[in-house]
Amino acid sequence: FKSKDSDAFESVLRKIDEAQLQVRQLRTRMDKVVREHAGKFTSNGSSFAHDDPTANCAPNSVLPHVNIEKTPFTSVCTTSQHGPVTPGPDMVESTEQPRIEGKCEKTGNG
């Protein structure tokens, strides 16, 4: 019985680690886009400039900055007692929310 609880706990830890990895990857991608298109942001960095046709696609709809290093969880990848982590389904792609396209689509400028 105790082994079953331990397996469930390990599964939760793996899922947390996978989610943290996805957050780090998305944050890296977001930081790269912000750096590449810094001129399109206002001085406070919270929204696109008003003359930009993508103004309603401001990053304020994105999760706030998360410091992964200060989370209370230890990565299972850095703990030798855990086996390899097998990636689960893409949590972003597996949500059943419709994609919004249109003004947010990439244009020919970059």
UniProtKB/TrEMBL annotation:
Segments of this protein annotated with the region Disordered: 78-110
Coiled coil region boundaries: 9-36
Keyword annotations of the record: Coiled coil
Residue ranges, compositional bias (Basic and acidic residues): 96-110
Top-level taxonomic group: Eukaryota
Protein name: Uncharacterized protein
